[in-house]
Specification:
Blueprint (H helix, E strand, L loop, with lengths): L19 H7 L5 H14 L3 H7 L5 H9 L24 H7 L1 E7 L2 E6 L5 H11 L2 E6 L2 H11 L19 H12 L6 H10 L6 H9 L2 H11 L13 H8 L1 H18 L6 H21 L6 H8 L3 H9 L1 H4 L8 H11 L4 H11 L4 H8 L11 H19 L4 H8 L10 H10 L5
Parallel strand pairs: 2-3
Antiparallel strand pairs: 1-2
Helix pairs in contact: 2-3, 8-16, 9-10, 9-13, 10-12, 11-13, 12-13, 13-15, 14-15, 14-21, 15-20, 15-21, 16-19, 19-20, 20-21, 22-23
Length: 439
Amino acid sequence: MSQVHPGTPAKSNEPAKKRVGELLVEEGLITAGQLVEALQLQRTSGGRVVENLVNLGFLAADQFAAFMGRQKGVASLNLSRYEVPAELCDLVPKEFALKYELFPIDRMGRLLTVGMVVPVDLEVRAELEQITGLRVKAMLCSAADIRAAIQRYYPKDGVPPAAEVPIETTMKLESIARIIREMDCLPTLPETVAKVEQAVHTPNVSLRDVADIVITDPPISARLLRLANSAAFGLPNNVETVEMATALLGLKETAMVVLSSAVINLVERSKSFDYSRFWTSAIVAAGSGRVIAEKLNLTEKSGVFTAGLLHDIGRFALSEAAPARFAKLGAGLSGTDLVAEEERVLGIGHPEAGYELANHWGLPPEICDSIRFHHSPELSTEFRLQAKIVALSAVLAEAHIKAPQDAAALHALCGPYPAPLDFDAGALWEVYLEIPGAT
């Protein structure tokens, strides 16, 4: 009987995941015929499919990089900025690293984190798990960064790699890997969240059934009532009981609010994070999402409300995972300036950190996607409209801090947004005036 190597992934009944080429065809970046031609070239001349697609002129390298950055569960990393422990290279043969364009960046116990040009390549990851006997987690890195790292850290013609090579920043890669590990170690959401989520998708479940689940968790109940009574909802009457909140909000909305309340409860307990400012921005962004969704005649608003409420959760993740470095961030920064400063100081911006944390907590994919792209909604694919709504909601929340006095001032702060959110100054001001808690 054949033995299974400890690093070999166990077989499952899950449907096989699609190969990268198939995903590129589905997204319209290449045609089926071009994929066939690239595969034929691979059979005759070797090379990887993506490399052949680029060499044949069917796919631009920057197009592929942007495509990879949009894939679910794939965190991205600027490898050129960091330094890694040289002993990690002993785990991965240089030939394998060169062939599949990957590089080891961190190890914790039996988990090996690698940078890859194609992190969704499950076959390569499985082969690497067989070689190392470790579980492999992949992060997206550029091909140029991978090649530079291999050249820097692996011996060349028997000569050991240079011990000291100037790098773009002083932060070491083990620090960014530690940040992600620390986020993975943050407390999980209460069991109540999973129970409510399961109940909502159970046929014939009643409002009373959901209320009974929530009542068993006093902190969640209290937070649910606080959110239901917050300005973001703008309900006409004070909500005094969980049963009343469930009746007013409905099943799906209640499930989203329970999820939100569990996350917010963890944030509130932080000793190093400015919770007060986070909460104000979260409430305005959540309320903005609801108003914008109504303007667009969207019937399902719970997703944009929750995503708006949690859009900056990555800031909390960074403050918990790297408090000393987080404290060095410049005050008063916002938008893309803030993200750039986070990447300079911490190596990762809060949208990407929020996405990692949201995935760790098992938040719905539309929420994870909107958190990740709330500063770059054009990069979203499956949930692009929601990402655009949350992006504009986040901008309105930032504008709220500066208290614009008229339509022109607000429009100057927000700037133009693409269709279907291309509100002119007057329409944007109307949205702002309807946001609960913003005026």
